[in-house]
Write a structure and sequence with these properties.
This protein has a single domain, classed as Farnesyl Diphosphate Synthase. It is built from 15 helices and 2 strands. A two-stranded antiparallel sheet has the order 1-2. A hairpin with a 2-residue loop joins strand 1 and strand 2. Its cofactor is Mg(2+).
Length: 299
Amino acid sequence: MNLETLPAAIAEAAAEIDTALAVLLPPDAGEEAPLFAAMRYATIGGGKKLRGFLVLETARLFGVARGSAIRVAAAVEMLHGYSLVHDDLPAMDDDDLRRGKPTVHKAWDEATAILAGDALQTQAFATLAAPETHADGEIRATLCLRLAQAAGAQGMVGGQMLDMLAEVATAPLERGAVLRLQQLKTGRLIEFAAEAGGILGQAAAPLRQRLLAYGRDIGTAFQIADDLLDLTATPEQAGKATGKDAAAGKATLLGLLGPERARLYAVELIARAKAELDVFGARADLLCALADHVISRRH
């Protein structure tokens, strides 16, 4: 398994996750049809589903049943979808384009976008808590707890608050503060996706810690790559507006370090992430390839 085989594996996983989402999300029918349609629009058929792919690949390390892993992968993508819908709102990043198509508040309206995000978030936890996800209630509870911690006030949402505060700060943030901001806003959900397979597989604590460290490092590298794309890619390549972060004065490692030093730091992070997987041997080849892909992607 290498970078050549990775795209096919990602595409296959994304198709599986989309199939699961189509079943797990309400059909766009009935009086609430606009809400249901917006939920599906925000999640099905868009993006590479890299967080869901992480769940599936880490679960495979421990022989977890595919159906169980797919449900957790779908839940992560619901949560991620909610975060994008809300981030795109005028009160947040005010974006008109996401994944090459109009954002939810543009395709519908702001109120529908807010409700769709709310519903995706709660549906993610309903999916994790359902007996179909795993027979062991303690494992389901752990998944719910860890996702809540990753997504909440001391995770992704907290990172978004720090991001907004940084835009109006009177002085630029120092490196440690920027790193914490990005690890919360982007990294925590990626960390959860990497750890989730270990939770499902009842892995020993040291192995779960390795997966968390892997997720933390590729999450930081992913954000650096995303910032580089914002700087260099066209809107068509990125599937969204580019150049907005620099114009808004957002706090990024790229802004602090400059493009070349930021790239070198991302390469260092990827090497560190791959080293965490040594204990799994060849079974982690796709996860190592994914780490390399994070900093070589063009969209």
